[in-house]
Specification:
- This protein is α/β, with parallel strands linked by helices.
- It contains 8 helices and 7 strands; from the N terminus they run βαβαβαβαβαβαααβ.
- α2 links the parallel β2 and β3.
- The chain is globular and about 50 Å long.
Length: about 240
């Protein structure tokens, strides 16, 4: 693997677990200096021990918390908005608390972090990449995913606006839509064959995604090899949305 990101710094939110952690490991392996933002100090300490990254322990569920985290993170060339959460509620069961939790982290935090990153890049002369981690849930109606689906679809829409408005400054914005990705939580949730098998067969590749599948795609989209990709949502779904 080439050191394609030598001299580059990438900020990754939600870097303590799952896709965010895998992306931090992947980007470090490709030569990037990683700034990891996460809520749990022990997760950050483990990651720092592995790749020597800068860490920012923060709760970005509030706008002030997200702004403070970005200020502490410092300047960077790329931003990966990977922090996410879900509260399983149906349309009839949705609560204010569930809405605020999901929207606060999945959408508002991403927009606030993107704004802070973009302002810094413009002040520095432009250039850079914002990558927002969405979901196939923004395109398909999964039960009990009301607020989650809304947050991820909103993030895709916001990505298009970012691409339009920030393009003149040389800043690209792209989102990805992973399918079910086998984080520790997902492994537990989908381990029952009665639940997992019917969903898995809807993927032409015959499996769910591993976190490394998503991380490698993110790394490619952050690289100069993807210089003509902006404003798009790239499905990392083994063909799920296509068939």
């Amino acid at each position: 693997m080439g050191k394609t990101f030598d001299g580059k710094t990438v900020i990754i939110t939600g870097a303590g677990k799952g896709i965010g952690r895998a992306t931090a490991l992947e980007m470090a392996a490709r030569g990037a200096a990683v700034v990891a933002i996460a809520r749990t100090e022990s997760d950050l300490a483990r990651l720092a021990g592995e790749i020597g990254c800068k860490t920012v322990q923060a709760d970005i569920s509030t706008a002030d918390g997200a702004r403070a985290a970005m200020a502490q993170a410092g300047p960077a060339d790329c931003l990966v908005n990977c922090a996410g959460t879900n509260v399983l509620e149906t349309v009839l069961e949705m609560t204010d608390e569930g809405y605020e939790t999901v929207m606060g982290i999945n959408l508002r935090a991403a927009l606030v972090c993107a704004q802070a990153f973009a302002r810094a890049r413009v002040a520095a002369g432009g250039g850079g990449v914002i990558l927002n981690v969405g979901s196939i849930a923004g395109y398909r109606g999964f039960e009990q995913h009301l607020c989650y689906a809304a947050s991820k679809a909103g993030l895709d829409g916001a990505t298009r606006v970012m691409a339009k408005e920030l393009g003149p400054y040389g800043i690209r914005a792209v989102s990805v839509a992973p399918t079910i990705t086998l984080t520790e939580l997902a492994k537990a949730a989908w381990s029952d064959p009665a639940k997992g098998a019917p969903m898995m067969v809807r993927h032409p590749v015959g499996r769910f995604a591993e976190v490394e599948d998503v991380a490698r795609a993110i790394a490619m989209l952050l690289s100069d090899d993807a210089a003509m990709i902006t404003g798009d949502t790239v499905a990392i779904d083994g063909g799920f949305l296509a068939v």
